[in-house]
Design a protein that fits this description.
about 350 residues, alpha/beta, Pectate Lyase C-like, eleven-stranded parallel β-sheet, eight-stranded parallel β-sheet, 7 helices, about 15% helix, globular
Length: about 350
């Protein structure tokens, strides 16, 4: 009986120890900052919270944003440490502003496409969850909601709302050194727009996302992938849909000659043009771009009628288009860690 009791006690202690280990494994050392418009948090604006993040800190700062509409233009400087920006849900946690490219600055000059963004993310190791990022200026030409140029940037369950040029994955667009990585990951996100509403030089994966072409839409993407980059924009198991007119929207056009855009296992509705891709009236770009699909489905998927200079990947070619292979880089970035 004593032996049986000892064994029972040992088992109970072992189970308790395992539970403790699991609990401690989920404990983080994140610094917490709360933003709330009602004054019950640490700050009432998102920019104030960003400003409070320690420069260069390896400890992650989690900025919890309470429900509300935050009309502000936000900059996340390159110097900031690791940040997680987390809202309550994207329907009621909204960051919005209404600048646009042709708006005049105090000197009377256009602020330009870059200057129109609602939020500028220049830092590395930035993650956002459960937030809507909006440019609310309307149909006034180029008007960016989010601009990224940092590296190891991730979004989960976020919405990107706008019209032309909604999401600018700027990356090394204006840099001399085109080898500097700018990797972006979007999971379960919603991105809408009309013209070139996902564009830039960054590398990005859109996984299980909804890409929505609004009425009057014309082009989904306008990649400017550097020649030195193996990957540009990759859409995996996403929905390419919208309410634009039937057969009125191209999957992409090349902002720069080495644009790379690939759709893997995506559902496409009838808004997509049968030819799929446009050369931006640059015939030479047909020789340098890489536009491809694998296993596209739906009424907008028509491999036989795509332009001759686009590609349908083989099963072997498709194997390299995995999240890990595209984003890991030399530093072996694990995006799952960023999303914890």
């Amino acid at each position: 009986m004593k032996t049986s009791s000892l064994i029972k006690n040992f088992k109970t202690f072992s189970i308790f120890s395992i539970i403790l280990v699991c609990l401690f494994s989920f404990k983080t050392n994140d610094k917490i900052i709360v933003v709330s418009k009602d004054g019950k948090g640490n700050f009432i604006t998102v920019q104030q919270a960003i400003d409070a993040v320690e420069n260069g800190s390896e400890t992650r700062t989690k900025i919890l944003i309470k429900a509300g509409v935050y009309k502000e233009k936000i900059t996340v400087p390159e110097s900031k440490g690791t940040i997680l920006l987390e809202g309550e849900n994207p329907e009621n946690t909204i960051i919005t502003y209404d600048d646009f490219a042709s708006k005049k600055n105090p000197e009377g000059k256009d602020i330009g496409t870059t200057g129109s963004s609602t939020i500028f993310i220049y830092s590395n190791n930035f993650t956002a969850k459960n937030i809507s990022f909006e440019n609310s200026s309307g149909k006034v030409g180029q008007a960016v909601a989010v601009l990224t140029s940092g590296d190891r940037i991730a979004f989960e369950n976020c919405r990107f709302l706008g019209n032309q040029d909604t999401l600018y994955l700027k990356g090394v667009q204006d840099l001399t050194d085109k080898t500097k990585p700018s990797r972006n990951y979007f999971k379960n996100c919603y991105i809408e727009g009309t013209t070139d509403y996902i564009f830039g030089a960054g590398t990005a994966i859109f996984e299980n996302c909804t890409i929505y072409s609004k009425e009057t839409a014309s082009y989904v993407t306008a990649a400017s992938t550097p020649q030195e980059s193996e990957f540009g924009f990759v859409f995996i198991q996403s929905k390419i849909i919208g309410n634009a007119k039937e057969h009125s929207v191209y999957l992409g056009r090349p902002w720069r000659p080495f644009a790379k855009t690939v759709y893997i296992d995506c559902e496409m509705n009838s808004t997509i043009k049968q030819e799929g891709w446009h050369n931006w009236n640059k015939p030479n770009a047909e020789k340098t771009t890489f536009y491809a699909e694998f296993n596209s489905k739906g009424t907008g998927a028509n491999a036989g009628k795509r332009v001759s200079w686009s590609h349908q990947l083989t099963k072997q070619e498709r194997k390299k288009y995995t999240t890990d292979n595209i984003l890991k880089g030399k530093d072996l970035w694990n995006v799952k860690t960023s999303l914890k």
